[in-house]
Structures are given as C-alpha cells and as structure tokens.
Amino acid sequence: MDHFHYRDGELHAEDVPLARIAEQIGTPVYVYSRAALERHARVFREAVGQGGARTICAFAVKSNPNLAVLRVMRREGFGADVVSGGELARALAAGMPAEAIVFSGVGKQAPEMAAGLDAGIGQFNIESEEEGLELSAIAAARGQQASCALRINPDIDAGTHEKISTGKRDNKFGVPIDQAAPMFARLAALPGLSMRGVAVHIGSQLASLAPLEAAFVRLGELIAELRAAGHSVSHADLGGGLGVCHKAGEILPTPQEYGAMVARVTKGWDTTLMFEPGRVIAGNAGVLLTRVVRVKRNANRDPFVIVDAAMNDLARPALYGAWHDFEPVRLRPERMTANIVGPICESGDTFATGRPIVAMGAGDLAVFRTAGAYGASMASSYNSRGLVAEVMVDNERFATVADRITPEAISAAERVPDWLD
Ligand SMILES: *Cc1c(COP(=O)(O)O)cnc(C)c1O
C-alpha cells in the first residue's frame, strides 16, 4: 500500500491526480505521499517493537532530507541518523529531539563534532580509533561529554550492489570486529567520551535477512564480551538497510519478518535497540513525475522515449543500474517496448533498456516509481539543468516542499574574476 493508485485510469497520489501537479508545478518533480510515509514509519516501528525492547527509530536523513519529510518522521516519533553537519542542521530544524539523533560516518570533521556536542545529540557512532581520540579531545576541551557507540565492521557480504555495501572488511566503514573489544576499552577510558553501545550497518537495499542476522549475532557476541570485561552496554544500534520492492512482483523481506528476526536474535540483550531505516520508509512513498519530450524512432531498434527527467534528477539507474518501474499517468491499452532516456548528453542517462511499457507519445506524463529515497537527495545540476522540485500530497491537497532551483540561480553563485577580463 503506497497511496499511488489509478482511479478511472488516471494515476493519483492519495486523492490528487498527478496531472494536476504537473500542470501547476511543472515537470520533472518528485511527489511524496504523506500518508505513505506515515504508514511505512508506523509499520516499521511496530515491527521492530515485537520483542518488547525499548526502541529508537532514527530515520536515515540521507535517503530523503526534505524538511517536510523529516517533519512527518518527527511526528511519527522518529529521530534521525545523520552523516554530515548539514544533515544534523536539517534534523534539528525539523524539530527532531536531539537525544534521538545519531551521527554516523567515517569523515566527521571537528566543527561537525562540535555542532553535535552543542546540540546534545544522543549518539556519535565512532568509526575508527582516530575519530574517537579526536572526539574525546574536542569534547574534553569544551567540558562536554559525547555519548557514543562503536560501529563495528562484521566482515559480512550484504549481497547487495557493491557501491552500497558497507559491512565487508575492505569497506571503509566501522572497526574490524576482532579489534572492537580492546578498542572499546581504550575509548571508554578517554575523557569526554561516554561509551554506551555498539553499532552495525552492513549496506542498503538488502534483499535477504540472512546477512543482517549474521551481523546481529556477531554484535550480540561482542556485547557479551564487553560486559564480561566490565563495560556497561545500554544501546545496540542495528542500522538500516532493509530493501524495498523496485519491480512489481519482487519478493523482499517485510518489516514484520525483519522485526521477528530482530526479536529472536536480540532476546536477552537487555539493551535499547536503535534502528536507522531510510529506504524502507521513503522509497515507495515517492515517485518522480516526468513528461515525455518526444519519441525518437531509429531503424532496427526499440524507440527511445525521451523524458524531461534525467540522471541528474534520479541518479540510481546510472549509478547502480537500478530498476525503477515506469508507469503512465493515463492508462491506455496499447503497449510498446522502449528505451527510456533523459536529455543529458551521456549514454549513461538511460533509465531503462528494452522495457515493455504502456505506449507513450510526446507530451504524455509518466512516473518512475520507488523514487522517494535516494532520489532528490542525490540530484545534481549536471548539464546546467535546474535542481528538481519536490511536492508533498496530503489527502486532496498538496504543497511544494522544495522549490525548483533554476539554472540561473545556480549560475548566480558563480564569479568570473576580473583578471579574466
Ligand atoms: C545509509 C545509511 C542508513 C540507511 O540505509 P537504508 O538502506 O536507506 O535503510 C542507515 N545507517 C547508516 C549508517 C547509513 O549510512
């Protein structure tokens, strides 16, 4: 249930026809459903609460940092998983409670650490001993205490695309699990750090629970080892990574199945469980609405359906070879097989090759589904295109939640030095 559905052959977001949004806002535009975001948040929170542990759900801001989206998450009782000072500022601006904010990432810089300390965030996920030493020095110098977890790298293949796999030994994330216990002890002895837990996140768009379970089992063993050594471990952060269905008919583990596995593996841990879901909440709560510019027919080849969205607006197909379902805003019985491409001058600007779709012609509207996560957040202005607009629907109303940034506004930030005159 994602609240994008056909009514009388016309695709709606909740009660709003997408054609109306295209007419008023223009295309390309991301469209999010408030109801779908809420529903996914509730389903997830209930699923991970199955075992009865205290839970903190921290929405992965990088999946969709839009302030209105973050506000929906806050209203659903979510905190935020942030990976930069910019994301921290957004989470705070959206009213997320500081104690439910987690700061992840291997390259936190001193001013970002200071900003997190000043905000009083709930947890820094430390990804190296070097980072821990630096955070300790900064916190101690400011007379502050950083509440921390140590992120481990369990050396587990998440079985996902290599560019979004984060839990293998060769990845830059976390500390090797076999070095974690002594490192935790050294960090716990430092001033300014309060080591409260351990964390793991092995990758994104996971299609199987097995690697997650293996990682959580290792985390549980580490918790036992740390406690045996006299440390108190009150928080276990299980990360994000649960995949979503990108292709009609695909079978993926459900949040309920994930929650049941978590309850089974974490039984007896006696910790607060933390989660950092992004894609599973936002992915299917958004579409990228686009208009066909023209259909180019070449001899001996499927036609090119050229749309006004491009790889700068939705990078996942070009970056990861990702599949996004492509559906017409107005249904019709005729079908065609097409290559769906954007206007950018790069062959990588291809959304689909040899794809069977409903027949389309110039001016027709269509959507790329599953675009609510890692869509707008990865947009760029490549080819001097503007930054795509974003809209949120709420029942029968909608609002622009991010203006389109025009190419003129982008070039207005550029300067030509006078020595080039
Ligand atoms: C990206 C990321 C997430 C979110 O991953 P999803 O696959 O979107 O759930 C969670 N935690 C960390 C540390 C991340 O880097």
Explain how this protein is built.
The chain has 421 residues and is of the alpha/beta class. The chain is built from 12 helices and 21 strands. Helix 3 (67-75) links the parallel strand 5 and strand 6. The strands form 3 sheets. Strands 4, 14, 15, 16, 17, 18, 19, 20 and 21 form a 9-stranded mixed beta sheet that branches. It has 2 domains: 4-32 and 283-412, Beta Barrel (Lyase, Ornithine Decarboxylase, Chain A, domain 1); 34-279, Alpha-Beta Barrel (TIM Barrel), CATH 3.20.20.10. The longest helix is centred in the middle third of the chain and has 19 residues, at 210-228. Helix 2 packs parallel to helix 9, helix 5 (110-119) packs across helix 6 (129-141) and helix 7 (177-188) crosses helix 8. The protein binds pyridoxal-5'-phosphate (PLP). Pyridoxal-5'-phosphate (PLP) is lined by residues 60, 62-63, 81, 83, 104, 201, 204, 239-242, 276-280, 373. Pyridoxal-5'-phosphate binds next to helix 10.
